[in-house]
Amino acid sequence: MYHKPFFYRLLPALLLATSGVSATAEPREDPAFAEEEDFLGELPVVLTATRLSQPAREAPVATTIIDRELIKASGAREIADLFRLVPGFVVSHDNGYTPIVTYHGLSNEQARRMQVLVDGRSVYSVVFGGTKWTDLPLAIDDIERIEVIRGPNAASYGANAFLSTINIITRHSSETTGVFARANVGNTDIRDAYLRYGDSRGDLSYRLTLGYKHDTGFADRYDSHQVRMINMRSDYQLSTSDTLEFQLGFNNGEMGVDSKTLNAEDEKNNKNHFAQVRWQHDLSMDENVSVQLYYIEEETAQIYDVTIPVLGRVVADNSYKASRLDMELQHTRQISRNARVVWGGGIRRDAATAPGYFGTAEIPFKDLYYINNLYRIFGNLEWHLTQKLLFNAGAMWEKTDLAGSDFAPRIGFNYLFNPVHSIRLTASHGTRSPTLAETKSNFRVPVYDSYLPTLPTTPSDFVSTMWRGNENLAPETITSYELGYMASLPQKGFTLDIKVYREELGGLIYMDENKIYEPTDYYDFHYEVPGNFGDATIKGVETTINYQPVRNTRFVVSHSYTELDSALPKLLPDQGNKTAPEQIFSFLAMQKFPRRINGSLAYYYVSESDGLGSGKPIPAIRRLDLRLALAFSGRKIRGEIAAIVQNALPDNDYIDWRNDNIFERRQYISLDVKFI
Amino acid sequence: MPTHPAAGPSDTPPLLRCTAALCLLMLCSLDVYASTLNVTLVPSRDDGAYQRVLGAIVSRIGEQPAADISLKIVNLDELRKNSREIDQAADLFIPIGIRATEHILRQSVNSPVLAVLVLRSSFNATLKRSTEKTPAVTPSGTRRISAILLDQPVNRQLHLTRLLFGTVKRIGIPLGPDSQPLRAEIADLAQRLELSIEIENIDSADRLMQQLTQLMERSDVLLAFPDPLIFNRRNVRYILLSSYRKRIPVIGYSQSYVKAGALAATYSSPEQIGKQAAEAIIELQRNPSLRFPAIMAPTYFSVAINDQVARAFGYMNLSAEDLAQQIRQLERNLQ
Predict the structure, then answer these.
(1) Given B97, B169, B209, which is nearest A200 (Cβ)?
(2) Beta carbons within 10 angstroms of residue B205's beta carbon
(3) Which CATH number fits domain B37-150+271-296: 3.40.50.1820, 3.40.50.720, 3.40.50.2000, 3.40.50.2300?
(4) How many domains does chain A have?
(5) Strand partners for A651
């Protein structure tokens, strides 16, 4: 806050002038009088109806909040690891730097049935639909809160909010001023460093975060990674009714890749950059409008060039460049004392180019450039019909170039019996539009100098098609019915959240097991084509208990029971039924000890399941994470040093999604310092 | 010593002077033998809260027909113009608001002064400046300058906090140079109420935001005690938005803060302050040797609740009256 001397001199002069006395202001009197005026007079309303979010009890869909205390206590080094604490979620890894975050199973490495937002920006990949967690230019210390919406909710969160939505909210730049640094050092060559500088001057605040992350991943995989990121956020209070938020991010990483099919290893380079601006305008105390514009660019560069005896020289190009340009307008209005409406619309342009994926028939591949335009409008109504009965209704209508239009409505009632007990009954319908990869891909691999006996002449060059997209794909659909119960006793530090649900999914897009043979191919490879032929019914119960019996102790316990019945025509007829583990349990205990020591213990249990991508069964996982930390402070600094052990149980190496991903014990020391 | 009319050198009472629009005279009792208490009321301004205090005093006194109390209302601007005309015959001066208080204290008044509708920090500052000129206590021992404050007593705010949040949550309390003196009282009472508090001492504006952020990181609730450095019109937006982003409710200290976005507050309306001032006057009239304590906390108070904010924090149907009633009960028990 900077001092406004002119205003202070002017105010008493004006007041004295109006009361007819000469304007010889007495300087000593001014601050006291101003204080009295502030006390007795009207202050501007800051928390207007449009600024307040729905509390958990009034939300139409079950929501889990991960706050900063949980983030710290979990000992997580990667953002994706935080979702182990959410009931129904499983976090696995395709390799050391590729987390797979899934809800209710049914997912392969791409985990594309989930909307992931960072400050309102959709970060799931343009081409494949999954989220590349390690490529996000986001430091875990810059996160304020993560809201996980367990269930479809396109009306509130936009396209792709199919099985669930992860909404990451970063800290306001006025709250991250000063200098902050963190370093992590541990086994598997864990070397991370983060440096952040922020400042706030009057109406403008900003911060700049630099980050470096490195480890060597799984022992038996070629999956080391090092990632560098820069993130800048700036918030500007244009006027009493206007705020402007501006963000930039750059992420550049080198990662190891390995391929069993080709028996080869390589390095890839990933880039992920974005720019975003958001403007909010208060039209009045009851009305607010916001406009958001962002641009994301992602790039991967990696080509296998491998010579395999007899087969020949295989060149598999996994590179691609993609971009997303999105603009959205939102209008919020408290239309009466009991009802609030949020509605808006957006347009998006996803574009991608990838010689290997989207190539043409000729060699060398001509690079095609694909564009997918999306248009959406959405609306939400929260209406308190009575003191105790709340009606939530919403819908999103979306049209994409790739798959036509679809409609996702949601309707629900929340009944608040009393301040303690409440229930919720919601039905929602969601859709997931196919990705560029699912519709347009034409993944072809040229093979040179091949001595395969079936070729007309040897050596020969030919093109092998691995998979093709299907331009006639329709969106996947989900209809979800949810009955929730919440008990809330904030004074006892206790909340309970139980959800019972049934989800019916249709038109799930999976690869067709049928072979399609094109006569132009010289070699009798078959390739796969996706189609809308999966169906699934998922039923289950999810429970979370938050309990803080005394102020220094806090527990978060989650459990989910899931029954998945699916019909997916794949190699194994029943496959898919067990991609959602039947039981998932997580327990986190946080304790503050004397002498500024604090500790936490997390226990996770995931019952056995099948990995959809690999098709192989994954045994049950039990894992114990421990964290012990000591806070310290000096005249000018304040910080904490912590020791974290992940998978602390003895002799407990476990298979993480793939048989050669053996998760051994990870331990690291984390030191963070804030200069004050 | 007791306040006699015309205690000054001249025995003749001076002429009354009121602004025509504002003059509300209450006739004294006809009984010439009863000692009439002459009270001069000086509102800082002719409108708003000051007028409401005035109205409450006048009507409360009016309910006591037998009392010999003569109320005179003098406009501050008139006083300023004719500074010599301060009524030396008045037995009690009641300046309403800090500006009137400052003006009265700068005069050499021999009669007691009871400042009303003032904040502790500004009252103390004004007192300090003026005692350099006129001593607060005369040789005979009468405490001449007292105040009925706007600031709610520490225990009232802590009781409200405890009723709403129990004992499990950490209560963050920012204290500035003016509220620092309350620290010991806050800590002591918090301990007795089993509240877990985190105090942050803020002494300058440069690090205010940083310190508030740090305090909010280790708090679940923010409890405000008035201090112009921390809680002022310019900062209200930052404090309420920043705390809401972290989902930390704020217990304010005034009705206006609650309207702005604080979850709840205990506060005294101008009418309640006026009622207490009137009762002080009546007591003094009955017992002329009465000495007011230097600082008096407001006796009558209400609880303000922002329903929308309460709902956003998951509270339902909070009754301001019930909470006020419970706090009154707790205050009685603690005594």
Answers:
(1) B209
(2) 15
(3) 3.40.50.2300
(4) 2
(5) none
- Residue A344's CB is within 10 A of a number of other CB atoms, namely 19
Q: Fold match between B37-150+271-296 and B154-267+301-334?
A: yes
Summarised one tens digit per residue, pLDDT across range A323-348 is 999 999 999 999 998 999 999 999 99
Instruction: State the pTM of this model.
Output: 0.87
How large is the ipTM? Answer: 0.85
Structure tokens at A624: 């114990």
**CA angle, residues B3, B6, B12, in degrees to nearest 5:** 165
Structure token digits, residue A294: 């962002």
A66, A92: one domain: yes
Q: Cβ B245–A175 below 8 Å, yes or no?
A: yes
Question: With contacts defined as CB-CB under 8 Å, which chain B residues touch A35?
Answer: 119, 121-122, 226, 228, 232
Look at residue B108 in the predicted model and tell me its pLDDT: 67
Geometric angle at alpha carbon B280, from B274 and B283, rounded to 5°:
145
Task: State how far residue A33 is from chain B, nearest Cα, in angstroms.
Answer: 7
Using CA atoms, how far apart are residues A589 and A149, in angstroms rounded to an integer? 23
Please tell me whether the peptide bond between A364 and the residue prior to it is cis, using omega within 30 degrees of 0.
Answer: yes
Of B134 and A261, more confident: A261
* Structural domain boundaries enclosing A12: 5-40
Q: Is 60 exceeded by the pLDDT of residue B4?
A: no
Query: From the candidates B200, B216, B308, which should be mutated to test the interface with A, based on the most A CB atoms within 10 A?
Result: B308
Domain ranges of chain B: 37-150+271-296, 154-267+301-334
CB pairs under 8 A between A and B: 168
Chain B contact for A550, CB < 8 A?
yes
Q: Which residues of B touch A40 (CB under 8 A)?
A: 48-49, 117, 150, 254, 256, 270
Report pLDDT for A613: 61
Residue ranges for chain A with pLDDT beneath 70: 1-32, 359-367, 513-526, 568-577, 612-615
* Length, in residues, of chain B: 335
Residues A437 and A542 in one domain: yes
For residue B290, what pLDDT is reported?
A: 82
